[in-house]
Amino acid sequence: MASEADGHPFAARPKRRRQDPRVLGAIALGGFLGGEARYLLGLAVPTGHAAFPATIFAINVTGSFILALLLVLILDVWPPTKYLRPLLATGFCGAYTTFSTWMVDADKLISAGRYGLAAADIFGSLFAGLAATTLGLAVGRALVAYRARRSTAVAVPEQHSEPSESEALR
What we know:
This protein is mainly α. The protein contains six helices and no strands. Helix content is 71%, strand content 0%. The protein has one domain.
């Protein structure tokens, strides 16, 4: 079968899978909530002109932690659902965190001649985001391991044996 790259613009294309409108609704709801949370934090803790953008830095770092933790919980702990991952991971965390504002803030710092702060923002956000992601994954995996140990302990009750002579004499 010929493709468009072969010079045939009317060649058959693979059919796209139709998106479930309820999944798109979950993404939209999560996006609204995540965007609103970021907006309100920006209002509560505004960044001054040519100052380090601490609010966006904190939002992106906490968002990295939240996303990593949520993905472990969604995939390994909570019962399967069609809507939770789109709602929380794609929608909420996608709108809560922001690459574009991070870069605009870095550009503002560079334009103001605050090169050291711009570098601290760019590289600090990268390293802190990676550390927060690692921590979120570790916390999530620790919760999974704790639940597994707890469920194993409950599933295998302790067997009680007769007390030894020394225990019986106490």
